[in-house]
Amino acid sequence: MLTVAVLISGTGSNLRALLEAARHPDFPARVVVVGADRDADGLAHAEEFGIPTFTVPWHEHDNRDAWGAELGRQLEVWSPDLIVLSGLMRLLPASLVAQYAPHIINTHPAYLPEFPGAHGVRDALAAGVSETGASVIVVDDGVDSGPILAQERVPVLPGDTEHSLHERIKPVERRLLIEVVQHIATGELALTS
Fold first, then answer.
1. Domain count of the chain?
2. CATH number of the domain to which 97 belongs
3. Cα 20 to the chain's mean position, in Å?
4. What is the pLDDT of residues 138-190, one digit of tens each?
């Protein structure tokens, strides 16, 4: 059974989808802990499913490395096989990535390498493209630059706003995340950095 730690910053909609999938007896992975960089609303999903949580507030640390060191200490308690960044809006320090690489994956609301960074949906709209997408990648030292594990196109419709487009991307992102975690757990997908 693949053990998974999930790190979030916000509402945790991808986390909830993963928790719902993992509660089925035939799903080959279990979420063992959920962490956040703030008092995130999504921690309530973990509590509802009886999953332990921890918070490592960004503002309580002098710099990214100090924050990452504490995050690493919290993760070590659980020894997860896989770490899922699910809406974590902080870049992990290189030392933490190196500690767990290539066993950290991230979801992104764009068809990478198109529109990396924190504003993928907004950037796609600003570029006037006819389609964008969702991706699941291995985390490396760059910004959304790791190996792509799964991705799917999502059309940009006339009159789309950042909100409406993101709402259409989210279900695709959730489905891809669940599929990737399942395929990693069954050995159908090998992680490489």
1. 1
2. 3.40.50.170
3. 16
4. 999 899 999 999 999 999 999 999 999 999 999 999 999 999 999 999 999 99
